[in-house]
User: What shape does this take?
Amino acid sequence: MTTASLILVRHGRPVINPDIPPPQWGLCPEGREAVAALAERLVPFAPKAAISSPEPKALQTAEIIGQRLGLAVEVEHGLHEHKRQHTSFGTEEDFRQRIAQVFANPHVPAPGGESAEEACRRVAAALEAHPVRPLVAVTHGTVLSLYVAKLLGLDAHDLWRNLHTPDAFVFDAEGGLIERL
Assistant: This one.
């Protein structure tokens, strides 16, 4: 088996509450169970460190994985979701349309936030700041899609539409995809 260097994880399924901003959502019970199952699949890759976005759904995901792997989790603020503060979740369709605009216009900042390109650079810098490998890094769907798509030459919006909660991508030291879990 090729040696893993980076395991990039999208958080588990959250409790969606339209009365609470998405950055404050935690995991739902089914999300916790799915993350525990994912953690088992990460064991063979023998991660040596774990970092996470500070958002509860990501941090809870990382803590479940870290507990199974015997790793302390370090909060990494650069792994937070794409900044779009002046955008509410709204309906599922509204949300999907707004995300499509982010991917269609990667140079344009979201209302009150950052561009897709800025978000991708932020995540890359956060990952580079942690040299211990193999590294588990728990983040969010939009920024994960941007980073992985750039690394693998994929369409970020297509990738985003096909993500699971949780989802994981295992990369080697050269940035090649070993496996998607």
Notes: The radius of gyration is 15 Å.
